[in-house]
Amino acid sequence: MNIDDLVKGIAAGERRALARGITLVESSREDHRAQATALLAALPKEREALRIGLSGTPGVGKSTFIESFGMMLIAQGLRVAVLAIDPSSSRSGGSILGDKTRMDLLSREKDAFIRPSPSQTHLGGVARRTREAVALCEAAGFDVVLIETVGVGQSETVVAEMSDVFLLLLAPAGGDELQGVKRGIMEMADIIVVNKADGDLKPAASRTCADYAGALRLLRKRPQDPDGFPKAMMVSALQESGLSETWGEVQALTDWRRANGFWARARAAQARYWFEQTVKHTLLAQLEAPKAKAALSELSDLVAQGAIDPTKAAQDFVAQLER
Amino acid sequence: MNIDDLVKGIAAGERRALARGITLVESSREDHRAQATALLAALPKEREALRIGLSGTPGVGKSTFIESFGMMLIAQGLRVAVLAIDPSSSRSGGSILGDKTRMDLLSREKDAFIRPSPSQTHLGGVARRTREAVALCEAAGFDVVLIETVGVGQSETVVAEMSDVFLLLLAPAGGDELQGVKRGIMEMADIIVVNKADGDLKPAASRTCADYAGALRLLRKRPQDPDGFPKAMMVSALQESGLSETWGEVQALTDWRRANGFWARARAAQARYWFEQTVKHTLLAQLEAPKAKAALSELSDLVAQGAIDPTKAAQDFVAQLER
Q1: How many inter-chain contacts (A to B, CB under 8 Å) are there?
Q2: Phi, psi at residue B47, to the nearest 5°?
Q3: Looking at chain A, which terminus has fewer C-beta neighbours within 10 angstroms, N or C?
Q4: How close does chain A come to B151, measured CA to CA in Å?
Q5: How far apart are the first and last CA of chain A?
Q6: Which residue range is the domain that position B300 belongs to?
Q7: What is the pLDDT of residues B223-247, one digit of tens each?
Q8: Are residues B102 and B247 in the same domain?
Q9: Same domain as B6, residue B152
Q10: In this structure, are residues B216 and B186 in contact, taking their beta carbons and an 8 Å threshold?
Q11: Residue B287 and residue A283: Cβ atoms within 8 Å?
């Protein structure tokens, strides 16, 4: 694959080149990794998309929200990319965004780009690939990159590490309980969006929104938040109501963060985070090479037989790895 | 330090040599690590202690239990070592076993050896050091090594990875609830010991014991358990009742496991586990060397400024590390 051509294609906003680039960063083949690194290093750096993290448990209407929200952004002349991190993808073989028909209208738009979650064994691997895919989407001139996830904490954390704004999507609750949303996830949210504020569910959505607004007021104020944030609001993705208001709040928040230095500071901290993660991963990836695996397995057998102490065996292994 | 002399001293069961050996394995100085590895490799391997993991939240009477249980073992002519893993020690500077006066009688016995938790920043580091300290106690001819921990899951897991038997100590519950013991921790327990079965608390201890016995019956049977295990029983560490019964059950369990191959199989799997953990740690420890730290920090600044892509910077860093 010619990396120069790929860079040019991506910089020109060609979706096919972008898709090929993402396939390259998702590959774990050693030669592909080298090409992916060269690609990432050669990408134009001056473009910056708004990266929106979006989390919500199954059933809250994430696909419908992304479809309606994405179509509204496109109607405003923006280009929208949708990526996903699925912590369960190693088991299910990719469950979220796996089916583009879930976003029927959006997937047919020329200004939209939808990519399912890479399937990998480790969440860390999926996350690193997705971070690189975000960089490719940015270089391809997308204005907004939506990063979807569903999980119970860990995947939200990694999505927050690659997002400028984090939205938590909820469904109206039956009673007045807080739907078992973990405190840690709530603390990551910049905007809590209560979906399905339509028809019979509207009163319940109202109550849920008020409950969360109350709960958010009890959290400690973060330096990166202007007055009134984090906030809770209602939308109906189905009836397409509340979407432009949500977008307005996202813009108000990010404008304030840009003006007050928090945007740049967060981006710098995120870049450091991914650098450190990638260093650690690269070091540990040495263990996956066939020769290393064979040596590990041989020493592991000796250790299991009690013929050699685990600490000594580990030292011997690392010493021969470095040679 | 002369490693040969240290090996001889430890093999002769000298407590001072043992203490010096443990100090050596706890050190993170590079020359100490090399000496510690040599020490571990040179230890006699034929001695095998019974390693008992012991967990329980603060207030259940762990110290009193260890004191009474340890004194009973010593009265039977056994030598007893007590080690600890404290997941909070990085913050508090060592809270469990930090004070030997908590085990006043035991600490004065010549056949007892008590060592507080090493203070380290990472649970992983503490755990690895403690695993090595267990190996030293074994080589010093201790018959029983008690490994104490208090935690909410993670530290129990690492203690289970270095124990032959795992005891979960509980206090009598006020009502009939299961004291918020996490399912994961309960599934690790071989014997649940309800302490404080004395005085006013005896009826509550009885109820708690019956509740847990019922809960244990609902868990899936593990291959390494003979009939009747895991089980729940009552003790009063204060009144020294139920202790020899607990010891009897521990022996019955371990005799069965030895006879049926589970003891050796578990030890082999644990040795493999610690080998792999130590390999990973040794690889990542390269990042702690002063030169590597300086290079990391320099590249991290460039990454934060957007001058270099995180993936490319990571690749460059690892490449120069290997040279």
Answers
A1: 130
A2: -85, 140
A3: C
A4: 20
A5: 32
A6: 289-322
A7: 999 999 999 999 999 999 999 999 9
A8: yes
A9: no
A10: yes
A11: yes
Q: Which residues of chain A have pLDDT under 50?
A: 89-95, 176
Asked if B41 and A322 come within 8 Å (Cβ–Cβ), the reply is no
Query: What's the complex ipTM?
Result: 0.85
Residue B247 lies in a domain: yes
Q: A215: which 2 tokens?
A: 């709960």
Query: Which residue of A lies nearest to B301 if distances are taken between CA atoms?
Result: A272
State the CB neighbour count (10 A cutoff) for residue B161. 16
- pLDDT, tens digit (0-9, with 9 covering 90-100), for A129-182: 999 999 999 999 999 999 999 866 688 889 999 999 999 999 998 554 555 677
What is residue B246's predicted lDDT score, i.e. its pLDDT? Answer: 98
**Mutation for testing the B interface, residue in A10, A37, A311, A322 having most B CBs under 10 Å:** A311
> Is B106 a member of any domain?
yes
Both B24 and B119 in one domain: the answer is no
Residues A157 and A303 in one domain: no
Asked if the structure places residue B304 within a domain, the reply is: yes
A278 is a domain residue: no
State how far residue A200 is from chain B, nearest Cα, in angstroms.
38
Partners of residue A132 in chain B, C-beta under 8 Å = 311
Reference B124, options B96, B165, B90; nearest CA is B90
Residue of chain A nearest B37, judged by CA positions: A312
CA distances B43 to A307, B9, B111, B140, B269, Å, are 12, 11, 20, 9, 20
The one-letter code for the residue type at A314 is A
Of A274, A281, A306, the CB nearest to B45: A306
Rounded to whole angstroms, how far apart are CA atoms B314 and A284?
13
Q: Output the pTM of the full model.
A: 0.78
On whether the CB atoms of residues B250 and B52 are closer than 8 A, the answer is yes
Domain co-membership, A93 together with A34: no
If phi > 0 it is left, if psi is from -120 to 50 it is alpha, else beta; for residue A240 that is left
- Give yes or no: residues B28 and B53 share one domain: no
Query: Do A31 and A79 reside in the same domain of the chain?
Result: no
